[in-house]
Specification:
Length: 584
């Protein structure tokens, strides 16, 4: 039998049989999933890109209130990524998760389109700058919020699964497929940007002209097409069997370690681990023991109550034990991996907050600038196209041009900067982007038009540098973050690792909302208009941008401290697992 015909990473086909390399997975499946991601992103961003303007023009919210509405919604989108990742790893599996959550996304977009068409746009044609909409009833607003939060749940919960499912299509034990797997997250982000590009140009332009319902219906159609594309590859996809509830495994370690805190930790070979075929199931691998977070090692201490013979703990078929009293070294190391990742995760929250500004306050800033060139009107939301183009270009040419230049410049090993180092560079570019936005705002107010209450004669293209700088930072941080979090968690928690990465955007959004709320409360105490009033010419939005610059700088200092002390996960080789399985 030709062993090259079968995958070596434990993946199976849709019938649960070992996956054949020639008829499953690879780039045929990967390209379907990239197309699906592009179409799903087009659908989602069609709502995201102009939600702030929709809130001000259709729902008649003030600037700060609209920005907070968006930040809370965007935060919820990415918070749902943790929920979806947990359900995927523990119960549903990645394929079912993708199908279910994308169906919910489509349902939410159809509801939003119907709600906008028949409930919110009254009188007909309202939602433009010159025609305000009538006040809305509680029922109409409830239907609107239900719709956008269904969209949030469908998109947020499904994204970790689709990203991880894409990498599942490549066998990391095969040299050619392993190289493709390493590139997948980069192409995944490019596909995301391509989908965003259409929404942030064509759809943003239509919605800025007041064609809100049309824009939402296009998004709904794109989501439906994305679902059809995904289901079309059902017979080709590779799958991994579920490995149980990762959250339960996490708390089993905490509980078992707490119960045995008074027991002395033996030598490393005295801790409990299962060897042989029972030790690594469903494509999962054991993790080598590490010396940090030693209090967790208590969970792997064998006592007389555990009914395990210490001299026979490594046999092929160990007796069943209570997992809330005794855990394997691998299970303990899974928890250690999460603890090591948490400081890195926390230190990307403020960056995520700066990223959220591109689709909230940057748009409000652009709407208060000169947006016409000859007779063509540039939608403020379309300025994010510069972020998309620069980040996509940066990702595409990174391996061929940027990494080799970095290696030559720094005289380091050919691999270029590590994921941790790239995330640090991204924080620096984020600081530069927010600082630039602050100076642009000062410059914009200098050119405020006396005959207009809200506009400035400064041309909107002055915003390009801040979008470019944040785009480079985005390329550094988010691709590296996906790769890093996907590789630094155990096999049984890969979707949860990606979900943790994406959820930093959630906390960043909530953090921005909190900072903005506190800033507005403090600056409006004595009857002042505050930093971000309805008329930006009367406010000090640049101070908010400078505050975010300082906070990102503080986060960078903390990040460097934790990154230098980070210890990478140490997994056993799959070929070692295979040899043990053969021996068993």
């Amino acid at each position: 039998m030709d062993m090259e015909m079968w995958t070596k990473d434990g993946s199976v086909d849709r019938f649960g049989k070992p996956a054949r390399r020639d008829i499953s997975g690879g780039w045929r499946s990967g390209l379907l999933l990239l197309a699906n991601q592009g179409l799903s992103t087009l659908a989602f961003v069609g709502v995201e890109v102009n939600l702030v303007l929709f809130s001000t023009r259709v729902l008649k919210q003030a600037n700060a209130e609209a920005s907070n509405t968006f930040s809370r919604w965007m935060g919820t989108v990415n918070l749902f990524s943790l929920v979806g990742a947990f359900l995927s790893d523990a119960y549903l599996g990645r394929y079912r998760s993708c199908a279910i959550f994308q169906s919910i996304l489509t349902l939410g977009l159809v509801m939003l389109s119907l709600t906008t068409s028949y409930l919110l746009l009254k009188p007909s044609g309202c939602g433009k700058e010159e025609l305000q909409c009538d006040p809305h009833s509680e029922f109409e607003l409830a239907m609107f919020y239900l719709s956008i939060y269904l969209v949030a749940f469908g998109n947020g919960a499904g994204e970790p699964s689709i990203a991880t499912f894409g990498t599942d299509q490549f066998d990391e034990e095969h040299e050619h497929e392993k190289a493709s797997k390493n590139f997948f997250y980069s192409y995944f982000y490019v596909a995301t940007n391509i989908g965003s590009l259409f929404s942030e140009t064509i759809l943003a332009y239509l919605q800025n002209l007041g064609h809100w319902a049309l824009g939402f219906w296009v998004s709904a159609g794109s989501a439906l097409f994305a679902l059809v594309v995904f289901l079309g590859g059902s017979f080709r996809y590779r799958h991994f069997r579920r490995c149980g509830n990762p959250v339960a495994r996490f708390f089993q370690v905490i509980f078992a370690a707490w119960k045995k805190l008074s027991v002395e930790i033996p030598a490393e070979d005295g801790l409990y681990e299962i060897q042989g075929a029972d030790g690594a199931n469903n494509g999962g691998r054991r993790i080598h023991h590490t010396s940090d977070f030693k209090f967790l090692d208590h969970a792997a201490i064998i006592t007389s109550k555990d009914k395990i013979n210490p001299t026979n703990q490594n046999n092929q078929h160990p007796r069943q034990h209570n997992p809330w009293q005794l855990c394997t070294v691998t299970q303990v190391e899974e928890v250690k991996c999460v603890f090591r990742l948490l400081p890195i995760w926390i230190c990307t929250i403020t960056f995520s907050g700066t990223f959220v500004q591109m689709v909230s306050l940057f748009i409000e800033q652009g709407a208060s600038m000169k947006t016409t060139i000859y007779k063509f009107h540039i939608p403020p939301a379309s300025m994010t196209v510069f972020d998309i183009l620069i980040s996509s270009t940066f990702i595409i040419f990174y391996k061929k041009l940027i990494a080799p230049f970095y290696t030559k410049l720094t005289k380091t090993i050919p691999k270029g900067p590590s994921d941790l180092r790239k995330m640090g560079y991204g924080l620096i570019f984020a600081m530069a982007g927010m600082l630039t936005a602050g100076f642009v705002e000062i410059h914009r107010k200098k050119y405020a038009l006396e005959e207009s209450e809200e506009l400035s004669s400064l041309f909107i293209l002055w915003q390009i540098p801040q979008y470019v700088l944040l785009g480079i930072g985005e390329a550094f941080v988010y691709v590296s973050q996906l790769d890093f979090f996907g590789s630094q968690v155990p096999d049984v928690m890969r979707s949860l690792g990606i979900g943790l990465s994406l959820s930093s955007i959630s906390l960043g959004s909530y953090f921005c909302s909190l900072v903005l709320t506190v800033a507005m409360k403090i600056t409006t105490k004595e009857g002042d208009l505050g930093w971000i009033p309805a008329n930006l010419n009367d406010g000090f939005m640049e101070r908010y941008f400078f505050l975010m610059t300082v906070l990102t700088g503080m986060e960078l200092v903390l990040y460097i401290w934790f990154a230098r002390r980070y210890k990478s996960i140490s997994l056993e080789r799959r070929e070692d697992v295979g040899m043990e399985n053969e021996m068993s």
